[in-house]
Amino acid sequence: MDKCDMSLDDLLYESETDATLALTLDEKEAVLREIARGLEYLHGKLVVHRDLKPANILLSRDLGLVKLADFGLATQLEANSSIADTVSSVGTPAYMAPEVLQAPARWTTRADIYAFGIVMWEVYHGKSPFEHSVRSISDLETRVLNRERPLVSENVDVRLWVVRLMEKCWAHDPQERPRASEILQTFQDRKNVRQSTRLIRGLVSACPRSRGGRNGVEDASIELVQGLVRDLSDVTGNLARTLDAIRNILEQEYDAKGSDVLRAQALSCGIVVSTKRIVEHSTDPDILAKALWALRFALTGESGTSFRVAAIQEHDLGSSVIEVFQAFRDHEDLQAAACGFVIPVTFDSDRNEVILVQELGVGKEIAAAMRKHPESESVQNYACGALWNLAANARNKEILGQDVKLVKEIVAAMRKHLESESVQSKACSALANLAANDRNEVILVQELKVGREIVAAMRKHSGSEIVQEKACGALWSLAAKNARNQEILGQELKVGKGIVAAMRKHPGSEAVQKQACGALGNLACNSTGGSLHLREVARLAAVGLFPVPYF
Fold it and tell me: How many CA atoms lie within 13 A of 169 on its CB side?
């Protein structure tokens, strides 16, 4: 016959007096899960326990057996009992719900749920709530009837979802409390998540090898992502690790290209809402950065189109990110993450671009981040990437280039991070969009001398197809309309040589050839420097490297 060795009350006392006997988070949840299982059985039989408390919960030493006991309310009141031990004719006041503390008492299964919430609190704190803060039973009853509930100590290691379940269980209105079956299901779901979380490292490393289809590894990865995202709103102690795991998995899928199965799963499981909650309530800059990085990679890809729109227009994450920019200006990684978040939400969404720049003023925050962290390659890289997208809108070009003067920060980033292929390519992309404004075009070439930075980037990264493509694209825009720009770029800086060199170096790249031809076409509009460019294009066309462009 199965035998219990002690009560939960005994176990909690032992844990308080001997730290080596303290339960782990998983063990605490396992005990609570089995208590919920017992309540589900009782309530299914229409039985109300009416005195659920640690002293009436029996356990085996290995925690493999948990039983509910003392259905007869037989505990006798003793003169020296604490409030937690005091038993009325119908229960123990410290665990009694508001509706049974006043006449006429209304005993339903929901009263047991209230008691379960108090037991949950006690499992994590090792003592009865209000034990040392109330003067009498009537004082306790007054507090409970006035909706006062125990506070979860900041020093207690407890997962957020457990705290929220406690709060639901001790809701003042009985109808707002969950059923025992719902509580049990919650614990079972979280148990599965805990087991999946232990596979994080192995699955993250295996994830890129699962491209061939939904084999065993990929199925496990999908289940892991689903569990991790569900866990986001419920984990405190492991929140950082959970966010890191989500980012690692989704970033690897993003880098591998060709699939966004896991990102789609993350989005469908509610990662936008979960990270919004974190961003709005956390004051830890490291956690905030991890949340924004996870969201940045989740929103990238075809599956994220509607979610990107919703993130800004429905969930107002733009305002939250602005607050993050302002509150944690000195935190390098968080500033980079905030810029990184802007990139996907402004991809192919003109309305999002308008909201962020024209209504929320994100340009000022990006400029401040770039000025505050000039040495940070990460900040400069993601800032330039964000500006690339934000400058697609005509009015945004004017605001970013002239009102906020972000063109100066882009040029400064190119000078400071010449060695960085990523910074150079994204900066050139941002310049290409910003230069599609007459005044910006003049400022960049004639005042900031950006042509020199582009030439330097092309020389430094001659073998980089992406840098050559984006540099040629920037020159295409910068030489679009202004005759003086064409003269400076073509004759003084001789960018034509760099463009031709790029065409020779990357003959098989359609993107490089297209952007180069566009740049040469605009430069050739200047009669003085055009002949050199046209002769070179004609020569390359003659040997069949690319079609003759139309100028």
Answer: 28
